[in-house]
Structures are given as structure tokens and as C-alpha cells.
Amino acid sequence: MTYLIDAWLDRPHPYLRILNSDTGEVCAMLHEEALEELREQGELDVADLSCTEPGLLKEVVRNLFLYCYARALRPTLEG
User: The whole model's pTM is what?
Assistant: First the structure.
């Protein structure tokens, strides 16, 4: 399966999507808060998103998926 990174980072409310390149289905979505957290942790370098090296892009997509899954498993703080 191949993926497409659709990143809109220079907007008032940036977001990044990972799409299945065959179907266009959204596989993962990161909004402003998550993107900022990734940048603060040093896990997201905007320059990597415009790279053309397949190995590096594969690693970026893998890390973004892992982050999304880890974030989904976080306990929510209520109240």
C-alpha cells in the first residue's frame, strides 16, 4: 500500500492527512494541536515532508501513524 502526505501547514489552522494513494481514503489526520506537539518533541521536521527520498518519506509516514495510534490510546482527562 502506498500513501500520500497531504499537508497544509501554512494556514491559520494547519492540518496533515495521510491518504491511501490508490483510493484517496484518509488513513490518518493530524490537526493543529497534534502537529505542534510533534514539532515540540522534534518528531516532525517540515523539511522532511518535501523530501523525495523514498526511505525517509516511508519513515515519516510510519512515525506519523505511530503517533496517531499512541495519541488515540491516551487516557482522556475528564472534569
Answer: 0.83
